[in-house]
Write a structure and sequence with these properties.
Number of strands: 8
Order of helices and strands: EEHHHHHHHHHHEEEEEEHHHHH
Distance between the termini: 100 Å
Structural class: alpha/beta
């Protein structure tokens, strides 16, 4: 089943951006209730251990309303100015009590009684539906919550907003000051993407949660609910960035609340992506691990190349060949103490080169003194 939105590819004027401190606070409550699939926000989960016990109990009491669902009356309006937290809560207190009861009942009734695409609040007046709601709310929360849901939805809304105010004072007001600049930057970045690549180019970045077809001028989300929504000339599609919605994308397709998406802000989406090394490094590592390169040394060891025959002329040029021959003929060899006659003569290191006495001459010639070199062997 899918929720399908139909928007003209060139309908950028039908898109509105907004972000909301109240909505963001409730999305962060979802992270606290279901922390195991929100690894990017685990720092926030650990920091919220400091919350007061009374507030923790209230958050747990409302956990059924934010665990797998998101109350749609929290979607911000895509028109008008950006409201602060106090203004948003004042506007929420004016919400229709019947619609508030419907939003708190939806996560407890699946599938919806009577079926159909719409959600009829009058179905909540049926005796069997009321009995089912009382049983489930008492199990998930407490009896006082069940009584408010069935008979006093305005008191239920006030209890919820009071819990939200306490959460704001204890923790989220400071967090909102930190993340609001990121949300504003996310709105600007998404706007630039729509300007450069169009609406469907921007939505492509929300894959796989959001799938789109530019040619058919539609995008859709897999949800346990079939609905098709056309954004006409007088309608506005809400796109709301959030720091705490990842890895989800929240969607609303039912009035009277704004129609649109709550998507992860770009900074959080980038942080959540796996760190991929540069393409050049990947290419080098792939070349080093290539099977052909690894097989080549083994092939050379198994089949060594044949060595060419020795060339006597090349071997004769080796500097040690003549000396070896002279030693073989018994002639004295002395390393020159002064290379090529340049610079003062230096005494060879002791024990490294030793004077060699010349052999006796036939005919009783005089014997050279030790250390004395013949003129024929004197270095130049």
């Amino acid at each position: 089943m899918t929720i399908v939105f139909r928007v003209p590819a060139g309908g950028a004027e039908r898109v509105g951006f907004a972000y909301s401190p109240a909505m963001e606070a409730v999305l962060s409550l979802h992270v606290l209730v279901e922390p195991k699939h929100h690894p990017v926000q685990h720092g926030w989960v650990r920091a919220m251990r400091k919350l007061s016990p009374a507030l923790k109990r209230e958050i747990e009491a409302f956990s059924y309303a934010v665990r797998s669902y998101f109350p749609e009356f929290l979607f911000p309006r895509p028109t008008g100015g950006l409201a602060d937290f106090v203004s948003e809560l004042a506007a929420l207190r004016e919400a229709d009590p019947e619609l508030v009861r419907l939003e708190f009942a939806i996560p407890l009734l699946s599938p919806w009684p009577g079926g159909g695409e719409g959600r009829d609040p009058h179905a909540l007046r049926e005796p069997d539906v009321r009995a089912l709601l009382r049983e489930r709310v008492t199990r998930e929360s407490d009896e006082a919550m069940a009584a408010m849901l069935l008979d006093d939805p305005r008191a239920l809304l006030e209890r919820f907003l009071s819990m939200l105010e306490c959460y704001w004072r204890e923790a989220f007001e400071e967090e909102w000051a930190r993340i609001e600049p990121e949300l504003a930057a996310g709105v600007s970045e998404a706007g630039h993407q729509i300007e450069q690549r169009g609406l469907y180019g921007m939505l492509r970045g929300l894959w796989p949660e959001v799938r789109s077809d530019r040619q058919a001028e539609r995008f859709w989300l897999e949800r346990p609910h079939d609905h098709e929504v056309a954004i006409g000339p007088d309608d506005t599609l809400l796109l709301a960035p959030s720091a705490y919605v990842w890895p989800h994308v929240r969607v609303n397709c039912d009035g009277p609340w704004p129609l649109g998406l709550v998507f992860p802000v770009s900074s959080i989406a980038r942080e959540a992506r796996p760190r991929i090394p540069p393409a050049q490094l990947v290419g080098m590592l792939r070349a080093l691990a290539d099977d052909t390169r690894l097989r080549a040394p083994r092939a050379r060891r198994r089949h060594p190349p044949a060595r060419p025959p020795a060339d006597r002329r090349t071997a004769a040029q080796h500097p040690g060949v003549g000396s070896a021959r002279r030693r073989q003929r018994g002639r004295p060899v002395q390393a020159p103490a002064r290379p090529c006659g340049r610079g003062p003569a230096r005494t060879p290191p002791r024990g490294l080169l030793r004077p060699v006495p010349a052999p006796a001459r036939a005919g009783g010639g005089s014997r050279s003194q030790p250390g004395e070199l013949s003129a024929r062997r004197r270095p130049h």
